[in-house]
Design a protein that fits this description.
Elements (H helix, E strand, L loop, with lengths): L2 H28 L2 H17 L5 H21 L21 E2 L4 E2 L1 H11 L22 H19 L8 E6 L5 H14 L4 E5 H13 L6 H5 L2 E7 L9 H14 L4 E5 L3 H16 L5 E6 L10
Parallel strand pairs: 3-6, 3-7, 4-5, 5-6
Antiparallel strand pairs: 1-2
Bound molecules: zinc ion.
């Protein structure tokens, strides 16, 4: 988890703790019995520690204290759980992590999406609904575009666990590859599967910034339920960083069967040349990856 995210959750817990304190003070002011009820569990534990109460008796006393408090609250027209801890996200109890071993909670991924890729958010205009076949210059490219759209929509429909988790979209610049990357990420989020979309450039930059700030910035790329990595091949080739980062992302996401979409202007040979056998063979691994090669004329010159 990034430092920024950790700060977000500690601030959130602090905010909710203060809100609860305010509720407690407000209740104690209305009814003095709340104050003694707040002290009683401590007395019970003291008696338990001193051997004056059996564990069963202590448990039943604690239960009775809770029940009395609930009844008091209800009699005051408040919810029975009004004085329970307040959590903005009950799933992770505002820690940002769930499960064992710990994974980022959906709320943390959403937060990351907002924080981490502020400069590269999903382009909200590029969705399946906004797809226009009229941008294609000829029938062949139109057919290819429509087939691509259908394929990507099926892929999204099968999220969060497609049979082949990964997509590798290759082709020259200006064939609408990024459009489909955006559309996949938007549609995934719409169906409730958190997606992170970023460029390879920004991914490597985030890792480098993380090294400077002494934080592990790779976590969101490893644990995003869907990762769309655009412009693979345009990032800086930093020794001991770029290739290692991609290897970890591909390897750990494959191990967790997490869907990953890679988009690149490079062809297969160029991927091998740039990233080496170890990484490139994972990018095109036929057991895990559907490779799509888009052909045709640059569309950007046609969009008015
Ligand atoms: Zn959460």
């Amino acid at each position: 988890m990034t430092n920024e995210l950790q700060r977000y959750y500690s601030d959130l817990r602090e905010k909710n703790r203060r809100a609860l304190e305010k509720r407690i003070a407000e209740c104690e002011q209305k009814n003095r019995r709340f104050r003694s009820l707040a002290d009683e569990p401590g007395l019970v534990f003291k008696q338990l520690a001193a051997g004056k109460l059996t564990p069963a008796a202590a448990k039943s006393r604690i239960g009775a204290i809770g029940a009395e408090r609930r009844n008091l609250l209800i009699s005051m027209g408040l919810p029975g759980n009004y004085l329970d801890p307040i959590y903005t996200c009950p799933r992770c109890r505002d820690t940002g992590e769930v499960g064992e071993p710990a994974r980022l909670c959906a709320c943390a991924l959403k937060k990351l999406q907002e924080q981490m890729i502020a400069g590269s958010r999903i382009n909200p205009r590029e969705t399946f609904a906004a797809f226009r076949e009229s941008i294609y210059p000829d029938d062949e490219q139109k057919k290819q575009g429509l087939a691509m759209k259908r394929f990507c929509e099926r892929y999204v429909a099968s999220l969060p666990a497609p049979e082949k988790p990964n997509l590798l979209i290759l082709g020259a610049a200006g064939l609408g590859k990024s459009f489909f990357g955006n559309a996949i990420a938007s549609a995934a989020i719409e169906k409730g599967v958190p997606a992170v979309k970023t460029t390879a450039y920004q991914c490597v930059q985030a890792i480098l910034d993380g090294i400077d700030a002494r934080e592990d910035a790779i976590a969101p790329f490893l644990s995003a339920p869907v990762l769309v990595l655009d412009d693979v091949g345009t990032e800086a080739m930093v020794p001991n960083v770029t290739v290692e980062t991609f290897f970890r992302i591909l390897n750990e996401r494959a191990a967790a069967a997490l869907p990953t979409v890679l988009i690149s202007n490079l062809n297969k040979d160029e991927l091998f040349e740039r990233y080496g056998e170890r990484v490139a063979s994972r990018m095109i691994d036929g057991a895990l990856t559907s490779v799509i090669l888009l052909r045709g004329d640059n569309l950007r010159t046609r969009i008015r």
